[in-house]
Every structure is written in C-alpha cells, then in structure tokens.
Amino acid sequence: MPAKRRLDLPAVEHALREVQSRFAELSRRFTEPRDPLTDEVLENVLEGYALIDDYVARGIDLFELQNLNLMLELNATVLCGRNAARRQEFAQHLAATEAHFFNNIEGGIKDVFNWYCAHRSDSVWKRAAGVYVRILSKPQLFIEGNNRTGSLIVSYLLMRDGQPPFVLTLKNAEGYFNPSSVIRNSAKHGVKALYELPKIKKKYAAFLEDQSPERKKFFLSEKKLAAEQRWEA
After folding, report:
1. Quick one: the chain helix, strand, coil %, rounded to 5?
2. Which residues contact 48 (CB under 8 A, 6 or more apart)?
3. How far apart, in Å, are the Cα atoms of 169 and each of 23, 26, 136, 173, 179?
4. I need a labelling partner for 27 at 20 to 30 A (CA). Which of 17, 63, 76, 102 fits?
C-alpha cells in the first residue's frame, strides 16, 4: 500500500470556505436546488475529514466486516459533529439510521459491501465512483447525509491508494452536484439499473480522476508533518 500522508485540514477548510462564500452564485448552475453550505455543515464535514485522515493513518480498512460500523460514525459526524450533546439530541435518528444501514435488504451496507468485494481489482477511481453510486442511488445507504458521507468515503478510498482526497472546490462544484443529482434519482436495482449505473459510474470515475488536484494541495508537506509530529510528541 502507498505511504500514508496526513491531510492539511486548514487547506481543506479554505477550499470549502471559498465554495461557501460563492454558493448562491454556484447554485445557479445546479440542476436541482441545494441547501446552502452553513457553518455547522461545513464544520461537521471538516470533522469528517479529520476522521478519515485518522482511519487512513491507522491503516483501518472500512471494508472489513468488523469495521463497517465506522461508516455509521462518519455519517453521524457529518450530521451532528463529535459533540456528545448533539449526538444525544439526534439519538433516535441515529438509531433508525443504524437499523436501516444493517437491515435494508436492497440499499443497506450488504449491497455496498458485496459490490466492493466484487470490484476490488478495479482502479481506485472506478472503485470510489462505484461505492459512491451504491451509497447515493435509491434506496440510499443512510437516511440523511448520503452526499457528504459518500464523498468522505470516496476520499478515504482515494487516500488509501495514495491519491489526494476529493474536496469540494469552486472548480469542481458543478461537476460534483449535477451528477450526484442524477445518481440519487437512479434506482440501484432493476433492468434499467443494469445498463444505466455502469455508465454513470464510468462518468463519475472520469470526473474524480480529471478533477484530482496536485498531491501537495491537500496533504501536509514533509516539513509541516514533521513539525506537527514534534508538537504532538
């Protein structure tokens, strides 16, 4: 496996803040209305990036059976952050999400896991795109927050392979939101899905690869990483 590199979280936040500041302008080019990127949503997503950074650094494989529940933690983080009081407020919703995640026959984690296991030899771009399509298409993996959680899982897969994470930017926002609308309005099962979803996955894989930034943009430099490690020691 490629060497692990730690995320530059301030750089990720800077990119997201740029999108936030121009979201109204960007949204005019979206095919469906999107909720604004509030401070709470943005900060929760940042906590999600910190979480996947930790998973990658510790060598955790989210697609091992004993680790599948960590995807629920990612979803809870994008919805509530890491705040215990907020988690308690959302306890009923989080419990319902867990039941849906494990028990939904058509759209639960079993579907995503089986797809991933059957495509382990694909390129990381195709694997990441395929997982995103399985999460976001109907029925969705989570009750809420599928776009954000799915994109974090995409980033996790890319980072495990040594690639930069997917981060929403001014340049890729339209290319992210509009295909995501197509995916979430597509069924993952049925005759139509047999020929539609592979085409959607192929296009999204190409998008992920084409928009991939320089490695140094969202990863800490060796100098910064060494400084952080000295600080933590």
Report:
1. 65, 0, 30
2. 74, 77, 78, 148, 149, 152
3. 10, 10, 20, 6, 15
4. 76
Looking up tokens 């600080």 gives 231
Nearest to 132 by CA among 71, 58, 44, 69: 71
Domains of the chain with bracketed CATH: 9-213 (1.10.3290)
From the list 198, 211, 182, 208, the residue with the least C-alpha distance to 30 is 182
Q: What is the mean pLDDT of residues 23-45?
A: 96
* Sign for the pseudo-dihedral over CA of 162, 164, 166, 172: negative
Q: What CA–CA distance (Å, rounded) separates 116 from 109?
A: 10
pLDDT value for 3: 46
Q: What is the pLDDT of residue 59?
A: 96
Please tell me the distance from the alpha carbon of residue 197 to that of residue 141, in angstroms, as a whole number.
Answer: 16
The maximal CA–CA distance of the chain, rounded, in angstroms, is 56
What's the DSSP call for residue 138?
B
What does the pLDDT read at residue 215? 84
Do the beta carbons of residue 61 and residue 67 sit within 8 Å? Answer: yes
3 versus 87: the higher-pLDDT residue is 87
What is the length of the chain? 233
Cβ atoms of 42 and 17 closer than 8 Å: yes
Task: State the Cα angle at 166 between 162 and 168, rounded to 5°.
Answer: 155
Question: Residue 143: in which H helix or E strand, if any?
Answer: none
Residue 100's CB is within 10 A of a number of other CB atoms, namely: 17
By the 10 Å C-beta count (0-12 exposed, 13-18 middle, 19+ buried), 23 is classed as middle
Cβ pair 16, 42 in contact under 8 A:
yes
